[in-house]
Amino acid sequence: MYRLTALAAVVLLGACGPSRISLSVKSPPGTNLGRPMYMLVRQVDPKQYANEEYSEVASKVGSPDKSVLQTAVLYPGTIQRFQLRAPEEGSLAVSFLFTAPDGNWQLLLSPPIPTAVDVELTVSRIMSDSVPPAIPSEMPSAPAPKAPEAPKPPGA
């Protein structure tokens, strides 16, 4: 009986522990003008994330703080896959440090964090339709159905 109770406790604790996230990053050959670049994964507060500047995030590659969960060099013309541990609380920021960013260079993954994320990069930004919206209110909504037109009287 003791073994079954201990086994059940291990299973339950494991289920409550940090989960894993599969991150796949597709970098076509022209990404970052054909040069390698850094990716930085951090645990963030969404308010902090909204106010960060590129230079502030880029400085964490050389001097990581406790929020940095992973850094990696991405190579153009590749698909690279990473296994990340989800933070116990907070959100994840995935930042792509392009030489000359032109548009969205990072994304926010808020709880509940998905177990798999696919990101596709372009020359100098994240392809916008390759990642889920960071904020539910930014999710595309279906267009409102059009009201049927009233029938026109004959001869009108």
TrEMBL record:
<feature type="region of interest" description="Disordered">
    <location>
        <begin position="130"/>
        <end position="156"/>
    </location>
</feature>
<protein>
    <recommendedName>
        <fullName>Type VI lipoprotein IgE-like C-terminal domain-containing protein</fullName>
    </recommendedName>
</protein>
<feature type="compositionally biased region" description="Pro residues">
    <location>
        <begin position="142"/>
        <end position="156"/>
    </location>
</feature>
<dbReference type="Pfam" id="PF22361">
    <property type="entry name" value="IglE_N"/>
</dbReference>
<dbReference type="InterPro" id="IPR054378">
    <property type="entry name" value="IgE-like_C"/>
</dbReference>
<feature type="domain" description="Type VI lipoprotein IgE-like C-terminal">
    <location>
        <begin position="38"/>
        <end position="121"/>
    </location>
</feature>
